[in-house]
Amino acid sequence: MRKTMIESLWRGPLTEPAPPADDAALAELAAKVNRAAQARLGRSLSIRHVDAGSCNGCELELHALSNAFYDLERFGLRFVASPRHADVLTVTGPVTVNMREALLRTYEATPDPKWVVAIGGCAVDGGIFAGSNAVAGGVKDVLPVDLTIRGCPPSPRQLLAGLLALLKV
Amino acid sequence: MMPTQTNVKVDGWLEAVDRLAGGHLTLLSLWADPPDVKMALLDEASGAVSIVSYHCRNGQYPSVGVKHPPAIRLERAIRDLHKLEAIGASDTRPWLKHTAAPYEFLAAEGEALHQIAVGPVHAGIIEPGHFRFTANGEFLVRLEARLGYVHRGIEASMAGAPLDGAAKFAARASGDSTVAYGIAFALAAEMALGIAAPPRAIYLRALMAELERLANHFGDIGAICNDASFSLMHAQCGILRELTLRAADDYFGHRLMMDIAVPGGVVRDIAADGAAHLGTLLAEVRRVFPQLVELYDNTASLQDRTVTTGIVKPDYARQFGAGGFVGRASGRAVDARRLPGYAPYGDLKFEVPVLTAGDVNARVWIRIREVEQSLALVEQILAALPGGALRVDLPSRGGEGLGIVEAFRGDVFVWLRLADDGSVARCHLRDASWFQWPLLETAVEGNIVADFPLCNKSFNCSYAGHDL
Ligand code: SF4
Asked: I want to staple B324 with a disulfide (CB 3.0 to 4.6 A). Which of B239, B402, B409, B441 is the partner?
């Protein structure tokens, strides 16, 4: 263990500079977010993630945000275990009929003020699953959405750029 | 690998059920193509795959699950999705279709037992499912999973779609295995059409499949250690995983290599400098990974958590035909790349690691050994990469075919029937998880509640691939 740790010290950090906050995302947010509410939270947001019907591809890239290259927490963004601790809900997948209720309950359990970020093509409008009998639609068909991050799945850089926009409004 | 297909009456169906129950054959899958139900069977001695098809009368067929438990959840899914009834079935609760009626969990009776309900929304960034634990103090007496939350209606959505459209659904059955699903669907389509992908495409598919396996195994090894609170391994394995995904992005244009393996071949070539640069990735992994293995092996506090935890009995692994590290850590020496086998693996040298302890530790070690094998496979594939075309044209005609591909977590089975115009009439996808989830329920029995995350992560079953 010592060897691995010492080597890491020598090597220096792998963490890369942050991408600029996504312009489109900023514009989308500016139109929606209550600035006063945001100012109260400061530059730190707790994120609760809900997979509402994803293929798991989007989750893999959300996980990647925590690796040494992206290191999400340096921006004051962190994933929390309960919606009761969260400011932001990230939601992936088309919302399945079977997950609709659980998603709504998670939203209700999240204290105000709160933001909803729809992540991935499926979450935006159902993606290729739109129209399936087993699917209720995109996230916006179930909850008010404040920000969308497209991609199938969005890359960690795209995710980071989108989430950083949340801190910049 | 063209399977034999037999239309059977009640006698023939029951005979197949008996052979499954007697352990002579392994159930690859059970599905409906209404009004028929079909079973795919594997003879592990010869590698032969056969399909038996039963024409339902009044929407009914004799239950397989009543004698061969691995079929129970498949029968429940058939009932939900196709309204065909398994006569004699012991469990008729809905499975993929959730209704307003409260779900009745199986009972566990005894003094001082309490229940813990978890999910579908979990504490981490993971897929949704519900776990109902019954515990006696700290010890688990029973676990029952309730799945189906991410049921998106994939098979129904594929019906009527053109082949390229349907391939997109297959590639999104389980994002972590998108390459494996892409290949399995392509193999099924190519068998149905009586064509074969060009040699270069076959090798590029295998290259992507091994990169996918490496990325997932790195992720899993780190995540399992993380669930034992050893975050150093998680951080280090996370770096290897990220480097692998970046290589995939650089040389195939997508980090998960989604939508590249398609019926007829592959849609793009590896980038011109890809083969040379992949050598750099391999060298880095070969430099770092052995140190991590040593770290895993020499950390007593970590071993204390993984050794003898969550044991899957070899008998269960055999009965359920458990694929991947779940089966191979419990003595089942089956890997779809070998049995039944598909190109180009017959031309490549690799070992299929097998252990018998069946605990979390064994499942970690199978992954470690498979990382080593995949590294050697990537080298062989790069050295032998043939030239030539990437894709052949697809004729528009009907047919049936199947594909069985070894994803990182086990065998992916795809069966496909094409209509005369070449569109999909019916497609069935079966993830390895179907036969692994039930074994997780057996593995946690007698373990403490706090070890469940560790057991669960060592299985890393798919929810999306199972729920479809
Ligand atoms: S957007 Fe793509 S990666 Fe994300 S859940 Fe949908 S299909 Fe999967």
From this structure: B409
